[in-house]
Amino acid sequence: MKTIPIHDVSRLQGSAYHHAPAHPDDTLVGVGKGTQAGEYLRRYWHPIGVAAEVTSRPQMVRLLGEDLVLFRDKAGRPGLLYPRCMHRGTSLYFGRVEEEGIRCCYHGWLFSVEGHCLNQPCEPDGGQHRDTARQPWYPVEERYGLVFAYMGPPEKKPVLPRYDILEDLEEGEFIEVNGSGFAGFADDVKDPHVPYHWLQNWENIVDPYHVHVLHATFSGIQFAEGFKILPKVDFEPVESGVIYHAYREFEDGRSMDRINSALLPNISAIPDIDLAPGRGSWVGWHVAVDDTHFRGFFAARTRKPGRFAPFKMHNGKSWLELSEQERQDFPGDFEAQGGQGAITLHSEEHLATSDRGIGLLRRMMKKQIATVAEGGDPLGVHFHEEQALVKIRSGNFYTDPAPHETTTA
Ligand code: FES
Ligand SMILES: [Fe+2]
Q1: Which atom, in ligand 1's list, is nearest to the CA of 104?
Q2: Was domain 158-398 assigned CATH 2.60.120?
Q3: Where in the chain is the domain with CATH 3.90.380?
Q4: Closest ligand to Cα 212
Q5: What is the pTM assigned to this prediction?
Q6: Ligand 1 and 92: CB distance under 6 A
Q7: Is the pLDDT of residue 325 over 90?
Q8: Ligand 1 in contact with 106 (CB < 6 A)?
Q9: Which residues are close to ligand 2, an ion, with C-beta < 5 A?
């Protein structure tokens, strides 16, 4: 029998035949009710829709693995209800919205946005016991042109946060929103439910190294020329999240500190990706739709509309216009993150020095998950309006000499 020479023994190692079965980190990946991470996520407000798109036409939405019906009553109040009518289970998706709420198509029970049953037309006196009937509901609030939902224990409902980036608008400024799922990176995605786990998208926020590789060298310049420079990076835990500083020295003598924030539970503040100088102007929410889908919502302060115009990924084409081969040759975030699978397999990762931000973020998240499991309140959750304001650090801060007006470095 032929034996392999001793100097070739490494050829016996690393075979995929010996590769152990891999699995996600169960502590991190749950989104459903009763899972550890799902209960933690339920302690925060999450965007559920773009306010202008929440109308008297009922729509089915999914958030944290729950299917719900979202509508706006004719008095202008948004409502989010469990969709199966409490009477005999017909979907309120087929209901009709009225001044006071939504009326089930089957036997006409009418529910307010808080689930109160206001009318049971087939019952004596319009329902003598209707006051005791309650369609399951969740609280919603509107802010920044988005509708937010709170799906946690009612007695633990926090104040809806305000973000300084989006407050105190100046003359001529307004807030533009986007709920199309990816916003700017694989945009034009008509289905806002992006088909992989939300954490893969959110962790990307604390990964400045991929910006150098994926977005500036591997696939050509997707954002700005300046990202070709491999940055020096510092990660810093902040009150309820992780920020990074990505320092770059440019050939013209300028240097830049790019500060980027990821805040619990799923929020981002990415500075301008053209490397334009100044404070960041947008806030993103990387929302868990279910175990294998997320939806991005973004709100930006701006002076001119079009902040979320289709982003040109390659050769003047937006993501939807790229062929399969072009996406393979010039991949972007969607390919890199989606390529990790519907739910990544944490057990077979090999986190390295460049993943310090991800390590920090995961440890912070796990600590909050444990805190919630023990009955405590997670970081970033407050119960008084005066605590609602969140200050976010985000921006491209150049040193002298003063930056050119051009947006690329
Ligand atoms: S099933 Fe809704 S009113 Fe009967
Ligand atoms: Fe990216």
Answers
A1: 2
A2: no
A3: 158-398
A4: 2
A5: 0.94
A6: no
A7: yes
A8: yes
A9: 333
